[in-house]
Records
---
Amino acid sequence: MNNFIVSIAEQDSEHYQLLTRIVLRLNNGEAAHQELMAVLFKIRSLLADVQVRMGRGEYDNRVQFAGMEHELQFGTVYAKIILREEWQKLKREVADPEQLIKDIRATSLPDAAAVEELARKIAPSVPRHFLLYQRGPLRLASLSLPRQRQTAPPRSFDVPNTPY
Protein backbone atom coordinates (compact mmCIF):
# COMPACT_ATOMS: atom_id res chain seq x y z
CA MET A 1 0.00 0.00 0.00
CA ASN A 2 2.85 2.39 0.78
CA ASN A 3 4.28 2.00 -2.73
CA PHE A 4 0.92 2.92 -4.21
CA ILE A 5 0.54 5.98 -1.96
CA VAL A 6 4.06 7.14 -2.81
CA SER A 7 3.41 6.67 -6.52
CA ILE A 8 0.37 8.97 -6.48
CA ALA A 9 1.56 11.42 -3.80
CA GLU A 10 2.25 14.29 -6.22
CA GLN A 11 -1.13 13.96 -7.92
CA ASP A 12 -2.87 13.64 -4.56
CA SER A 13 -1.12 16.77 -3.31
CA GLU A 14 -2.21 18.71 -6.42
CA HIS A 15 -5.83 17.61 -5.92
CA TYR A 16 -5.74 18.66 -2.29
CA GLN A 17 -4.22 22.05 -3.12
CA LEU A 18 -6.85 22.67 -5.81
CA LEU A 19 -9.62 21.74 -3.39
CA THR A 20 -8.22 24.15 -0.82
CA ARG A 21 -7.95 26.97 -3.35
CA ILE A 22 -11.54 26.48 -4.49
CA VAL A 23 -12.93 26.28 -0.94
CA LEU A 24 -11.08 29.46 0.04
CA ARG A 25 -12.78 31.29 -2.82
CA LEU A 26 -16.27 30.18 -1.83
CA ASN A 27 -18.57 32.09 0.53
CA ASN A 28 -19.65 29.82 3.37
CA GLY A 29 -22.64 32.09 4.02
CA GLU A 30 -24.41 31.39 0.72
CA ALA A 31 -26.43 28.24 0.06
CA ALA A 32 -25.09 27.44 -3.42
CA HIS A 33 -21.52 27.86 -2.17
CA GLN A 34 -22.21 25.53 0.77
CA GLU A 35 -23.66 22.91 -1.54
CA LEU A 36 -20.69 23.12 -3.89
CA MET A 37 -18.33 22.68 -0.92
CA ALA A 38 -20.27 19.60 0.18
CA VAL A 39 -20.00 18.15 -3.34
CA LEU A 40 -16.26 18.82 -3.48
CA PHE A 41 -15.65 17.18 -0.11
CA LYS A 42 -17.73 14.17 -1.13
CA ILE A 43 -15.69 13.78 -4.31
CA ARG A 44 -12.49 14.05 -2.28
CA SER A 45 -13.82 11.37 0.05
CA LEU A 46 -14.60 9.08 -2.87
CA LEU A 47 -11.11 9.63 -4.31
CA ALA A 48 -9.64 8.71 -0.92
CA ASP A 49 -11.79 5.56 -0.91
CA VAL A 50 -10.41 4.60 -4.32
CA GLN A 51 -6.85 5.16 -3.11
CA VAL A 52 -7.35 3.00 -0.04
CA ARG A 53 -9.04 0.24 -2.03
CA MET A 54 -6.35 0.24 -4.72
CA GLY A 55 -3.67 0.18 -2.04
CA ARG A 56 -5.28 -3.02 -0.74
CA GLY A 57 -5.38 -4.49 -4.24
CA GLU A 58 -9.14 -3.97 -4.71
CA TYR A 59 -9.58 -2.63 -8.23
CA ASP A 60 -13.36 -2.78 -8.65
CA ASN A 61 -14.23 0.82 -7.85
CA ARG A 62 -17.33 1.20 -9.99
CA VAL A 63 -19.45 2.30 -7.04
CA GLN A 64 -16.98 5.06 -6.14
CA PHE A 65 -16.66 6.25 -9.74
CA ALA A 66 -20.44 6.27 -10.16
CA GLY A 67 -20.69 8.30 -6.97
CA MET A 68 -18.11 10.76 -8.31
CA GLU A 69 -20.02 11.13 -11.57
CA HIS A 70 -23.22 11.76 -9.64
CA GLU A 71 -21.55 14.38 -7.43
CA LEU A 72 -19.89 16.03 -10.44
CA GLN A 73 -23.30 16.55 -12.03
CA PHE A 74 -24.53 18.31 -8.89
CA GLY A 75 -21.29 20.29 -8.67
CA THR A 76 -21.73 21.53 -12.23
CA VAL A 77 -25.22 22.79 -11.42
CA TYR A 78 -24.05 24.60 -8.28
CA ALA A 79 -21.06 26.11 -10.10
CA LYS A 80 -23.38 27.47 -12.80
CA ILE A 81 -25.65 28.96 -10.14
CA ILE A 82 -22.70 30.63 -8.42
CA LEU A 83 -21.30 31.98 -11.68
CA ARG A 84 -24.71 33.36 -12.67
CA GLU A 85 -25.08 35.07 -9.27
CA GLU A 86 -21.60 36.58 -9.50
CA TRP A 87 -22.25 37.76 -13.05
CA GLN A 88 -25.44 39.51 -11.90
CA LYS A 89 -23.55 41.20 -9.05
CA LEU A 90 -20.86 42.37 -11.45
CA LYS A 91 -23.41 43.78 -13.90
CA ARG A 92 -25.11 45.73 -11.08
CA GLU A 93 -21.78 47.13 -9.93
CA VAL A 94 -20.74 48.17 -13.44
CA ALA A 95 -24.14 49.76 -14.06
CA ASP A 96 -23.66 52.16 -11.14
CA PRO A 97 -19.93 52.68 -10.47
CA GLU A 98 -20.49 55.82 -8.37
CA GLN A 99 -22.65 53.87 -5.92
CA LEU A 100 -20.03 51.12 -5.80
CA ILE A 101 -17.34 53.66 -4.91
CA LYS A 102 -19.61 55.20 -2.23
CA ASP A 103 -20.26 51.76 -0.76
CA ILE A 104 -16.55 50.97 -0.66
CA ARG A 105 -15.72 54.29 0.98
CA ALA A 106 -18.54 53.86 3.51
CA THR A 107 -17.07 50.62 4.83
CA SER A 108 -14.55 50.76 7.62
CA LEU A 109 -11.97 48.28 8.75
CA PRO A 110 -13.30 46.04 11.52
CA ASP A 111 -11.65 46.32 14.90
CA ALA A 112 -9.84 43.35 16.46
CA ALA A 113 -12.86 42.36 18.58
CA ALA A 114 -15.11 42.19 15.52
CA VAL A 115 -12.60 40.05 13.64
CA GLU A 116 -12.26 37.69 16.61
CA GLU A 117 -16.06 37.42 16.96
CA LEU A 118 -16.39 36.60 13.26
CA ALA A 119 -13.64 33.98 13.49
CA ARG A 120 -15.36 32.32 16.45
CA LYS A 121 -18.68 32.36 14.60
CA ILE A 122 -17.21 30.79 11.46
CA ALA A 123 -14.79 28.35 13.13
CA PRO A 124 -17.43 25.69 13.94
CA SER A 125 -18.38 25.60 10.24
CA VAL A 126 -14.85 24.76 9.10
CA PRO A 127 -15.05 21.25 7.71
CA ARG A 128 -13.67 18.68 10.11
CA HIS A 129 -11.51 17.46 7.26
CA PHE A 130 -9.43 20.63 7.35
CA LEU A 131 -9.05 20.58 11.12
CA LEU A 132 -8.09 16.97 11.74
CA TYR A 133 -7.09 15.09 8.65
CA GLN A 134 -3.42 15.24 7.70
CA ARG A 135 -2.59 14.31 4.16
CA GLY A 136 0.17 15.19 1.73
CA PRO A 137 2.46 18.19 2.15
CA LEU A 138 -0.29 20.47 3.46
CA ARG A 139 -0.42 19.99 7.21
CA LEU A 140 -3.47 22.06 8.08
CA ALA A 141 -3.87 20.22 11.36
CA SER A 142 -0.58 21.70 12.51
CA LEU A 143 -2.13 25.16 12.70
CA SER A 144 -2.59 26.54 16.19
CA LEU A 145 -6.03 25.13 16.81
CA PRO A 146 -7.40 23.64 20.01
CA ARG A 147 -5.90 20.20 20.54
CA GLN A 148 -8.21 17.47 19.40
CA ARG A 149 -7.72 13.81 18.84
CA GLN A 150 -5.88 13.43 15.52
CA THR A 151 -7.83 10.73 13.73
CA ALA A 152 -8.90 10.44 10.15
CA PRO A 153 -12.63 10.55 9.49
CA PRO A 154 -14.26 7.34 8.27
CA ARG A 155 -13.86 6.66 4.57
CA SER A 156 -16.87 4.92 3.22
CA PHE A 157 -19.21 5.58 0.36
CA ASP A 158 -22.09 4.35 2.50
CA VAL A 159 -21.58 6.80 5.38
CA PRO A 160 -24.16 9.61 5.02
CA ASN A 161 -23.20 13.25 5.57
CA THR A 162 -19.47 12.65 5.36
CA PRO A 163 -17.90 16.09 5.94
CA TYR A 164 -15.53 15.82 3.01
Note: Confidence is low (pLDDT under 50) at residues 129-164.
---
Amino acid sequence: MMRYFFRNSFLLSSFIFFIILTSCSPTKDASFAEEDTLSRVVVTSDETEIVGGVDDPIIDTLNGFYEGEYVAVSQGVDSWYLAQIVAFDGGKTNLRYMDNDTDSKDFVELMKLDTVDIQKNDRVWALFGDGIRFRQGIVKEMEQDSVVVKFEGYNDGKVHFLRLFKDEE
Protein backbone atom coordinates (compact mmCIF):
# COMPACT_ATOMS: atom_id res chain seq x y z
CA MET A 1 0.00 0.00 0.00
CA MET A 2 2.83 2.40 0.84
CA ARG A 3 4.55 1.49 -2.43
CA TYR A 4 1.56 2.77 -4.44
CA PHE A 5 1.43 5.91 -2.32
CA PHE A 6 5.08 6.73 -3.05
CA ARG A 7 4.71 5.93 -6.76
CA ASN A 8 1.62 8.14 -7.09
CA SER A 9 3.30 10.92 -5.11
CA PHE A 10 6.29 10.75 -7.43
CA LEU A 11 4.11 10.88 -10.56
CA LEU A 12 2.13 13.82 -9.21
CA SER A 13 5.24 15.79 -8.26
CA SER A 14 6.78 15.05 -11.68
CA PHE A 15 3.65 16.31 -13.41
CA ILE A 16 3.64 19.51 -11.32
CA PHE A 17 7.34 20.08 -12.02
CA PHE A 18 6.69 19.64 -15.78
CA ILE A 19 3.86 22.20 -15.69
CA ILE A 20 6.03 24.72 -13.84
CA LEU A 21 8.93 24.14 -16.23
CA THR A 22 6.85 24.62 -19.38
CA SER A 23 5.16 27.75 -18.05
CA CYS A 24 8.57 29.38 -17.54
CA SER A 25 9.62 29.09 -21.20
CA PRO A 26 10.67 32.36 -22.84
CA THR A 27 8.23 34.05 -25.18
CA LYS A 28 9.00 36.04 -28.32
CA ASP A 29 8.97 39.78 -27.98
CA ALA A 30 8.10 42.25 -30.73
CA SER A 31 11.69 42.47 -32.06
CA PHE A 32 11.74 38.73 -32.85
CA ALA A 33 8.32 38.83 -34.54
CA GLU A 34 9.49 41.59 -36.88
CA GLU A 35 12.65 39.65 -37.80
CA ASP A 36 10.64 36.55 -38.82
CA THR A 37 8.88 38.44 -41.61
CA LEU A 38 12.02 39.79 -43.26
CA SER A 39 13.53 38.28 -46.40
CA ARG A 40 17.24 37.70 -46.76
CA VAL A 41 18.76 39.07 -49.96
CA VAL A 42 22.53 39.13 -50.31
CA VAL A 43 24.54 40.10 -53.35
CA THR A 44 28.12 38.91 -53.16
CA SER A 45 31.17 40.33 -54.87
CA ASP A 46 30.91 37.90 -57.81
CA GLU A 47 27.31 39.03 -58.40
CA THR A 48 25.80 35.80 -57.14
CA GLU A 49 22.38 36.59 -55.73
CA ILE A 50 21.18 34.59 -52.76
CA VAL A 51 17.48 34.93 -52.05
CA GLY A 52 15.07 33.45 -49.51
CA GLY A 53 12.84 34.17 -46.55
CA VAL A 54 13.69 33.13 -43.02
CA ASP A 55 11.78 29.84 -43.34
CA ASP A 56 12.50 29.34 -47.07
CA PRO A 57 15.58 27.58 -48.38
CA ILE A 58 18.31 30.01 -49.40
CA ILE A 59 18.89 29.74 -53.15
CA ASP A 60 21.99 30.72 -55.11
CA THR A 61 20.28 31.93 -58.28
CA LEU A 62 23.43 32.10 -60.42
CA ASN A 63 24.60 28.54 -59.76
CA GLY A 64 21.21 26.91 -59.08
CA PHE A 65 22.04 25.36 -55.70
CA TYR A 66 20.03 25.77 -52.50
CA GLU A 67 20.66 25.34 -48.78
CA GLY A 68 19.92 21.81 -47.64
CA GLU A 69 20.51 20.32 -51.09
CA TYR A 70 22.57 17.14 -51.36
CA VAL A 71 25.38 17.33 -53.93
CA ALA A 72 28.34 15.31 -55.14
CA VAL A 73 31.65 16.99 -54.25
CA SER A 74 34.82 16.40 -56.22
CA GLN A 75 37.82 15.38 -54.13
CA GLY A 76 40.24 14.95 -57.01
CA VAL A 77 40.26 12.89 -60.19
CA ASP A 78 37.51 10.23 -60.17
CA SER A 79 36.68 10.84 -56.51
CA TRP A 80 33.21 12.09 -55.51
CA TYR A 81 31.60 12.27 -52.07
CA LEU A 82 28.05 13.04 -50.89
CA ALA A 83 27.59 16.28 -48.94
CA GLN A 84 24.83 18.67 -47.94
CA ILE A 85 25.01 22.42 -48.54
CA VAL A 86 24.61 24.16 -45.18
CA ALA A 87 25.33 27.77 -46.23
CA PHE A 88 26.67 30.03 -48.95
CA ASP A 89 29.77 32.13 -48.32
CA GLY A 90 30.53 34.42 -51.26
CA GLY A 91 31.51 32.28 -54.24
CA LYS A 92 31.82 29.16 -52.08
CA THR A 93 29.50 26.76 -50.28
CA ASN A 94 29.84 25.46 -46.76
CA LEU A 95 29.30 21.69 -46.80
CA ARG A 96 28.63 18.89 -44.31
CA TYR A 97 29.70 15.44 -45.48
CA MET A 98 27.88 12.27 -44.43
CA ASP A 99 30.64 11.45 -41.93
CA ASN A 100 29.97 14.91 -40.34
CA ASP A 101 33.19 16.50 -41.63
CA THR A 102 32.75 20.06 -42.85
CA ASP A 103 34.42 21.91 -45.70
CA SER A 104 34.08 24.92 -47.99
CA LYS A 105 34.22 24.39 -51.77
CA ASP A 106 33.86 26.40 -54.97
CA PHE A 107 30.73 25.81 -57.03
CA VAL A 108 32.80 24.27 -59.85
CA GLU A 109 33.67 21.37 -57.52
CA LEU A 110 29.99 20.49 -56.96
CA MET A 111 27.73 18.31 -59.11
CA LYS A 112 23.93 18.49 -58.87
CA LEU A 113 22.28 15.12 -58.39
CA ASP A 114 20.03 15.59 -61.42
CA THR A 115 18.73 12.51 -63.20
CA VAL A 116 16.38 13.94 -65.79
CA ASP A 117 18.06 12.23 -68.73
CA ILE A 118 19.30 8.97 -67.17
CA GLN A 119 18.53 5.91 -69.30
CA LYS A 120 19.39 2.22 -69.35
CA ASN A 121 23.07 1.49 -70.22
CA ASP A 122 24.18 5.05 -69.30
CA ARG A 123 27.47 5.45 -67.44
CA VAL A 124 26.77 7.10 -64.09
CA TRP A 125 28.35 7.98 -60.78
CA ALA A 126 26.12 6.40 -58.14
CA LEU A 127 26.18 6.49 -54.36
CA PHE A 128 27.87 3.30 -53.25
CA GLY A 129 26.71 1.06 -50.40
CA ASP A 130 28.62 2.96 -47.70
CA GLY A 131 26.45 6.05 -48.32
CA ILE A 132 29.48 8.32 -48.39
CA ARG A 133 31.21 8.02 -51.77
CA PHE A 134 30.19 7.66 -55.39
CA ARG A 135 31.47 4.93 -57.72
CA GLN A 136 31.24 4.58 -61.47
CA GLY A 137 28.78 2.12 -62.88
CA ILE A 138 26.33 1.36 -65.66
CA VAL A 139 22.54 1.54 -65.34
CA LYS A 140 21.19 -1.99 -65.79
CA GLU A 141 17.52 -1.46 -64.93
CA MET A 142 15.18 1.48 -64.45
CA GLU A 143 12.58 1.35 -61.69
CA GLN A 144 9.96 3.84 -60.51
CA ASP A 145 12.17 5.82 -58.10
CA SER A 146 15.54 4.11 -58.44
CA VAL A 147 17.91 2.32 -60.80
CA VAL A 148 19.95 -0.86 -60.55
CA VAL A 149 23.60 -0.02 -61.14
CA LYS A 150 26.34 -2.47 -62.15
CA PHE A 151 29.34 -1.19 -60.20
CA GLU A 152 32.70 -2.01 -61.78
CA GLY A 153 34.33 -4.67 -59.60
CA TYR A 154 31.47 -4.81 -57.07
CA ASN A 155 27.98 -6.28 -56.73
CA ASP A 156 25.04 -4.56 -58.39
CA GLY A 157 23.29 -1.99 -56.23
CA LYS A 158 19.90 -0.30 -56.14
CA VAL A 159 20.34 3.48 -56.05
CA HIS A 160 17.67 6.17 -55.65
CA PHE A 161 17.44 8.68 -58.52
CA LEU A 162 18.50 11.52 -56.21
CA ARG A 163 21.79 9.79 -55.40
CA LEU A 164 23.42 9.58 -58.83
CA PHE A 165 24.53 11.73 -61.75
CA LYS A 166 25.48 11.07 -65.34
CA ASP A 167 29.14 10.48 -66.18
CA GLU A 168 30.33 13.32 -68.42
CA GLU A 169 32.94 11.23 -70.29
Note: The helical segments are 2-23, 30-36.
---
Amino acid sequence: MKARTRFLKSVISAAKSETTEMPWSRGATRQAQIAARRNGTSSQPAAQHLKSA
Protein backbone atom coordinates (compact mmCIF):
# COMPACT_ATOMS: atom_id res chain seq x y z
CA MET A 1 0.00 0.00 0.00
CA LYS A 2 3.00 2.26 0.15
CA ALA A 3 2.81 3.08 -3.57
CA ARG A 4 -0.89 3.90 -3.28
CA THR A 5 -0.30 6.27 -0.35
CA ARG A 6 2.49 8.02 -2.25
CA PHE A 7 0.24 8.32 -5.31
CA LEU A 8 -2.61 9.79 -3.28
CA LYS A 9 -0.28 12.30 -1.63
CA SER A 10 1.02 13.43 -5.04
CA VAL A 11 -2.52 13.80 -6.39
CA ILE A 12 -3.64 15.81 -3.35
CA SER A 13 -0.60 18.09 -3.52
CA ALA A 14 -1.15 18.66 -7.25
CA ALA A 15 -4.81 19.52 -6.63
CA LYS A 16 -3.88 22.00 -3.89
CA SER A 17 -1.33 23.73 -6.13
CA GLU A 18 -3.77 24.11 -9.04
CA THR A 19 -4.78 27.73 -9.61
CA THR A 20 -7.45 27.40 -12.30
CA GLU A 21 -9.77 30.38 -12.26
CA MET A 22 -13.42 29.40 -12.26
CA PRO A 23 -15.86 31.30 -14.51
CA TRP A 24 -17.87 32.68 -11.60
CA SER A 25 -14.77 34.07 -9.87
CA ARG A 26 -13.55 36.23 -12.76
CA GLY A 27 -15.86 39.10 -11.91
CA ALA A 28 -15.09 42.37 -13.71
CA THR A 29 -13.19 40.82 -16.61
CA ARG A 30 -16.06 38.49 -17.45
CA GLN A 31 -18.67 41.23 -17.12
CA ALA A 32 -16.66 43.47 -19.49
CA GLN A 33 -16.45 40.69 -22.08
CA ILE A 34 -20.18 40.01 -21.86
CA ALA A 35 -21.01 43.72 -22.17
CA ALA A 36 -18.75 44.07 -25.22
CA ARG A 37 -20.39 41.06 -26.85
CA ARG A 38 -23.89 42.44 -26.20
CA ASN A 39 -22.97 45.88 -27.54
CA GLY A 40 -21.47 44.40 -30.68
CA THR A 41 -18.02 45.82 -30.01
CA SER A 42 -14.95 43.67 -29.74
CA SER A 43 -11.20 44.06 -29.75
CA GLN A 44 -10.88 41.63 -32.67
CA PRO A 45 -10.96 42.88 -36.29
CA ALA A 46 -14.23 42.41 -38.14
CA ALA A 47 -14.61 39.23 -40.15
CA GLN A 48 -14.54 39.54 -43.91
CA HIS A 49 -17.93 39.23 -45.58
CA LEU A 50 -17.96 36.52 -48.22
CA LYS A 51 -19.96 36.85 -51.39
CA SER A 52 -22.66 34.24 -51.94
CA ALA A 53 -22.21 31.85 -54.84
Note: The CA atoms of residues 28 and 34 lie 10 Å apart.
